[in-house]
Amino acid sequence: MIMVLDVDQAARDLAGGRLACPHCGGVLRPWAWAPVRTVRRLDGTSEPVRPRRTRCSSCHTTQVLLPAWCLPRCGDAAEVVGAALAANATGRGHRGIAADLDRPAATVRRWLRRVRGDHAEWLRRIAVTHLARLCPELVADLHPQPTVLGDAVNALAAAVYAYRHRLGVATDAWTLVAGLTGGRLLTPVPAD
Ligand SMILES: [Zn+2]
């Protein structure tokens, strides 16, 4: 899985042989398409997405190029899940968030459970790593929040600010977060 911030640019890079295999650095080639999936946006609309599949010309592993506004194995866009996490970080409970977002309470509760503890700490660490690379002077300005998720959301917001500021892009905040975290807003990194 490769998270893609600019789908059109990724298509051009793929066609031009400029996308590298994350395993071996070989050239990725167009291979097929992943099945169409429907992803729900924050405004309540749904959008069909058909991600590109690629195959490495050297090691032959396949990779899906997933638009970063989506999340792997999630029917809701990154902006929907992100809004839930940000609201919870300010103290709002899963039922209120579910009502605000017009999502089932059980779905929102599942998202919030997945970012408790270790995963929230991982998100915070990734955000601080990006921030330290983009705008190191801002790392010391991160004020401690009441919860680990609050610290994570705060650091992610700072990383988004730094990314936009340094690279002059206006990409949606949670799309950027999905890109910066490799789509792992809710999914722990597998232990190796
Ligand atoms: Zn490869």
Automatic annotation (TrEMBL):
- Taxonomic superkingdom: Bacteria
Question: In what residue span(s) does the DUF6431 domain sit?
Answer: 21-111
A Pfam family assignment:
DUF6431
Name of the protein = DUF6431 domain-containing protein
Q: What is the species listed in this Swiss-Prot or TrEMBL entry?
A: Phytohabitans aurantiacus
